[in-house]
Amino acid sequence: MAADGSGNIRELKNFIGGEFVASGNTFENTTPIDGTLLSHVHEATKEMVDNAVIAAQKAAKIWSKMPVEARCKVLYAVADGIDARSDEFIEAETLDTGKPRSLASHVDIPRGAANFRVFADLIKSVGTEAYQQDTPDGLGAINYSVRHPHGVVGVISPWNLPLLLSTWKIAPAMASGNAVILKPSEETPTTATLLAEVMKEAGMPDGAFSVVHGFGENSAGEFMTTHRGINAITFTGETTTGGAIMRAASHDVKALSFELGGKNPSIVFADADFDAAIEGTVRSVFANCGQVCLCSERVYVERPIFDKFVATLKEKAEDMKLGRPEDPDTQMGPLISHEHRDKVKGYYDLAKELGATVVTGGGIPEFGDERDNGAFVEPTIFTGLSEDSRVQKEEIFGPVCHITPFDTEEEAVSMANDTEYGLASTVWTTNLARAHRVAQGMEAGINWVNCWFLRDLRTPFGGMGLSGFGREGGQHALNFYSEQKNICIKL
User: Please, what CATH class does the domain formed by 264-456 belong to?
Assistant: First the structure.
């Protein structure tokens, strides 16, 4: 993937108006596996973003007026195109992120393709409101609503699940009739470029989908969020970045949807299916090296099973194989970058300074090969910290959790909700009444019982508090990506 077949380093250009466009400034894209240079990425200029918006505005008039069936045919072709080139997408995703190939091949790429099919199916069947209204003359009126696309939607996507989380936004936005400009994370630009190629092959009108590469401040991110020609912005990423985007977009009151950070709790009651709770917690703490906004960083375990739970989770963490993504035995790859590794390691060190008990991990592994140049950290478990410590309050976004004992249901719920975030929670119990009671008591947008990361794409997805606002998924996504206009007909 690093070379174009002739031994040259690949260049990733911007995709504007149906063409790949170079700029005068490039930045390096390296893999977190061992630091190898993968590609030179062309950073979009302000003029390029302007051109992408102009092209999108023209294309939106064509795309939005196409019959729904014709629009959906193109979206199905995009999904088929991803599937047809799945090996390329999988390789690109694993090299950019370092995640195991097994994860990219079973989650990132197939679900990315599925998003186009799901929302193409949904736009053909979703309804709108209609009401009969009484009037003083007795003749009445009829009110009904119609959906109208915003026009141009800016999508700013994260690096942890690059294709999946970008298509989670692109698909409903385009199904609703909008043109889309995507700014992928500068850490993971490759699958966005491949997606542009697939869009072109699928017959997407030129300008209806664009990709601009770059960073945030004084780069593509800022140029998009402040651009008056972009009607809506949707973003997944860090809470601080969300705040900056919100301020930048405020001058022309853009429609905004943010899925931001999390400090998610998991509550394990003594009556839980112990083995299921352990396996579920292994996934919810360590999946994708802990770099999933839905991961559990705070685990609360009822005291009668606390020691057994900690000891068993320790064994599972120490049995995890860290390695290269192509190794079928690899269960955990590196973090996304050395910069992020320094951040996560900083929290490991802070926990030790604050007096945490290191159950396992807490450092950087040594391999004795090229992986030592990568961004690996050890899967880590802490106990013994107070609930008001920074480690318990701030999102770490790495393969780490702190486990705290509790004695009563009320105590567990109180500790779980003691956070400014509110994205996800997990509850493990075989008591049906408790399951409903505690899940409904969680102050989070998505709440799992006896499972984790199980998603019905029709259901509302999003956070509360510092975890963002707006809901994605099913009709909720279509409601964001379109304006509903009321038509009132006097009879």
Answer: alpha beta
Q: Mind listing the pLDDT tens digit for each residue in 191-208?
A: 999 999 999 999 999 999
Q: What is the pLDDT of residue 251?
A: 87
The rounded Cα 182 to chain-centroid distance in angstroms is: 14
pLDDT in tens, 8-29: 799 999 999 999 999 999 999 9
Nearest of 460, 483, 457 to residue 167 by alpha carbon: 457
Query: What's the confidence (pLDDT) of residue 1?
Result: 41
Which tokens go with 259?
């899925």
Please list the residue range(s) of the chain that carry CATH number 3.40.309.10: 264-456
Express each pLDDT in 27-76 by its tens digit: 999 999 999 999 999 999 999 999 999 999 999 999 999 999 999 999 99
Put the strands of the sheet holding 482-490 in their side by side order. Answer: 130-133, 141-149, 482-490
Q: What percent of the chain has pLDDT over 90?
A: 97
> Which residues on adjacent β-strands are paired with residue 383?
357, 403
pTM of the model: 0.95
β partners of residue 24: none
Q: Which of 457, 468, 461 is nearest to 422 (CA)?
A: 468
Architecture in CATH for domain 10-260+467-490: 3-Layer(aba) Sandwich (3.40)
Residues identified as active-site: 259, 293
Query: What pLDDT is stored for residue 340 in this prediction?
Result: 98
Polymer length of the chain: 491
Sequence letter at residue 163: L
Q: Per-residue confidence at 6, pLDDT binned at 50, 70, 90?
A: low
Q: Shortest CA distance to 471 belongs to which of 276, 272, 258?
A: 258
- 26: which residues sit within 8 A by CB, 6+ positions away? 11, 40, 41, 42, 43
Q: Is 3 helix (H, G, I), strand (E, B) or coil?
A: strand
| Helical spans, DSSP H, in 203-321 | 220-225, 239-249, 274-286, 306-319
Residue ranges of the chain that CATH labels 3.40.605.10: 10-260+467-490
Q: Strand 464-465 to strand 421-422: parallel, antiparallel, or no bridges (unpaired)?
A: antiparallel
Tens of pLDDT along 408-419?
Answer: 999 999 999 999
Helix (H, G, I), strand (E, B) or coil at 486: strand
CB distance 71 to 219 below 8 Å: no
φ, ψ of residue 316 to 5 degrees: the values are: -65, -40
Cβ within 8 Å of residue 85, ≥6 positions away: 194, 198
Question: Helices (H), strands (E): how many in the chain?
Answer: 16, 23
218's tokens: 């004084």
What is d(CA 466, CA 258) in angstroms, rounded to the nearest whole number?
10
C-alpha torsion sign, points 246, 248, 251, 252: negative
List of residues 6+ apart from 117 with CB closer than 8 A: 75, 76, 79
Report the C-alpha gap between 202 and 170 in whole angstroms. 15
